[in-house]
Design brief:
Largest sheet: 3 strands, antiparallel
CATH superfamily: Transferase(Phosphotransferase) domain 1
Radius of gyration: 17 Å
CATH architecture: Orthogonal Bundle
Number of strands: 7
Number of helices: 5
Strand order of the largest sheet: 3-5-6
Structural class: alpha+beta
InterPro entries: Kinase-like_dom_sf (IPR011009), Prot_kinase_dom (IPR000719), Ser_Thr_Kinases_DiverseReg (IPR051420), Tyr_kinase_AS (IPR008266)
Protein name: non-specific serine/threonine protein kinase
Catalytic activity: L-seryl-[protein] + ATP = O-phospho-L-seryl-[protein] + ADP + H(+); L-threonyl-[protein] + ATP = O-phospho-L-threonyl-[protein] + ADP + H(+)
Number of domains: 1
Helix content: 25-40%
Pfam families: Pkinase
GO molecular function: ATP binding; protein serine/threonine kinase activity
Length: 178
């Protein structure tokens, strides 16, 4: 990478983290990174093409909501669960995504999901189960992280449960308070 002097540190760290994580993982339900470039203060990531776009766009997009049947919903939930299980249990160092949301799940034409956006992901040191940096999309964050500023494996459960709830009920996290 070159010419990174004009890029805010947080963006550069997220960019580098995304590259680091995605070059280390191989799973059918995790987006494939084909390349990257950082030049003149601009950063680009080149991913595989995923036809339908994000799950959030499919459910609530301007093109009109798509009615997903139960088979498609189950396929999406299972695919995301497999990706998360792979990250937590099958990588040399466990990886915690920290931002599983409807917009970070892309769908292929047959509703096969791809998890993306690993900019806030963490490689979990096996000697430590806690850290105090909050990251992720509000509304999808685990309550243990929001209230206690602590991460451990028990705090992970809320994230995928929120996505499952929104997918099965068709609710929107942004309209939940209205």
């Amino acid at each position: 990478m070159s010419d990174t002097n004009n890029i805010p540190l947080i963006n550069l760290q997220s960019f580098e983290n995304e590259i680091h994580v995605l070059t280390e993982v191989r799973h059918q339900n995790i987006i494939k990174l084909h390349g990257f470039c950082s030049r003149r203060g601009n950063m680009f990531l080149i991913y595989e093409y995923v036809e339908r776009g994000s799950l959030g766009k499919v459910l609530y997009g301007l093109e009109g909501e798509v009615e997903l049947d139960w088979a498609a919903k189950v396929k999406i939930v299972k695919g995301v669960a497999h990706a998360i299980a792979y990250l937590h249990h099958d990588c040399s160092l466990p990886i915690v995504h920290r931002d599983v949301s409807l917009n970070n799940i892309l769908l292929e034409s047959e509703f096969e999901p791809r998890l993306l956006d690993f900019g806030t992901a963490r490689l979990l040191n096996l000697d430590s189960s806690n850290w105090t940096t909050v990251a992720g999309s509000y509304g999808y964050m685990a309550l243990g992280i929001i209230y206690f500023l602590r991460f451990n494996y028990s705090t992970l459960g809320n994230r995928d449960k929120i996505v499952k709830f929104l997918l099965t009920c068709g609710a929107s996290i942004h309209n939940a308070g209205h």
